[in-house]
Amino acid sequence: MPNSPSDAPRRVTVQRKGPLLLEGPVEVELEDGTVVSSDRFRVALCTCRRSRRHPWCDTSHRDRA
Amino acid sequence: MENHLRGDGPLPAERDVAAAPVYGDDLQLALYLCYELHYRGFAGVSPDLEWDPALLRTRAALEERFLGALRADARRHDSVEDALAGLLVEPVDGTGVSHFLRDKGELWQLREYAALRSLYHLKEADPHAWVLPRLRGRAKAAMAAVEFDEYGGGRADRVHAHLFAELMTDLGLDTTYGRYLDAARAEVLVTVNLMSLFGLHRALRGALVGHFATVEITSSPGSRRLAEAMRRTGAGPAAEHFYDEHVEADAVHEQVVRHDVIGGLLEDEPHLERDIAFGVDATVFTEDLLGDRLLADWRAGRSCLRTPLPQDVTHTS
């Protein structure tokens, strides 16, 4: 049986340096159970844990000089 | 020039165009007036002048000088990666305008900054929309997606230009389109003319993409500092929101522009690499020109406007 388009796997882009990129919209459940959402076409999730807007990327992963 | 637009004056003579300081008031204002006809025009100026051959000839002469100067004066990189590398490192002790405003900006300086930036932000994303028909495939789809976000994702109350107008209201500024053109110094006009120049010429599509990438890459950390400045001075919720929104939005846009717009364009048209790098370099150069001017004025306690703003700030929020 052919899959409907919604069954297509959702692509997540992983980078060695930088946020996880997901197709939006997304809901993110945080450790304390709260759910935050973003309805952008693409969403950048912080992986470096330095973001001040957790769970969203705020470019804090950048090198400092 | 202004009189020509109103219908009864001469255009600048060739020798005047050749003799005017290239980043100075006369040349940059003349160019700005030519370009504005492609956006929303001026009251009392015929919209037909947008494609007036004599005016376009004058514009071409002005552009030749501007573009030539930028190619000569900007620090140039041959590859996109090299051009962007410096932007992707955050200085610990930055000395730019947003650092100054975060640390010691006063409300009058934030008002001046917003008045000057309104020349761009009230048409935010517009010059970049011109590149869409000139892109294909991955680059086009990604560019359109970012522009859609800039235009509020289909919601008028989220259009970034509208969010900026609300910031201006918080700061007691007049949100009328073009209201602060007369107050702006040449260095401000240079930054807006740059994007109009790149946006209006298909031959400069690579440079336009480089410009967009530079704006998106530098915006997120800069916006965080400006949001802090707005909070510290009690500028108002809409003033904070404009920059808070850009911290998050542009962290995403940066990724999409680098990977898909630049990546897609380079795949499609690899010969544009130097043009994209030039767009980055020219943007950095013109932003530095403006930043130096603003900081020199503010550090001396001077207004950076040609005509000072009315003093009374009336909060409406």
TrEMBL record, chain A:
User: Protein name, please?
Assistant: Iron-binding protein
Q: Looking at the record's lineage, which domain of life comes first?
A: Bacteria
Q: Where is the Iron-binding zinc finger CDGSH type domain?
A: 23-65
Give an example GO cellular component term for this record. Answer: cytoplasm
**Assigned keywords, A-Z:** 2Fe-2S, Iron, Iron-sulfur, Metal-binding
One MF term in GO for this entry?
A: 2 iron, 2 sulfur cluster binding
Listed SMART domains: ZnF_CDGSH (SM00704)
Q: Which organism is it from?
A: Streptomyces toyocaensis
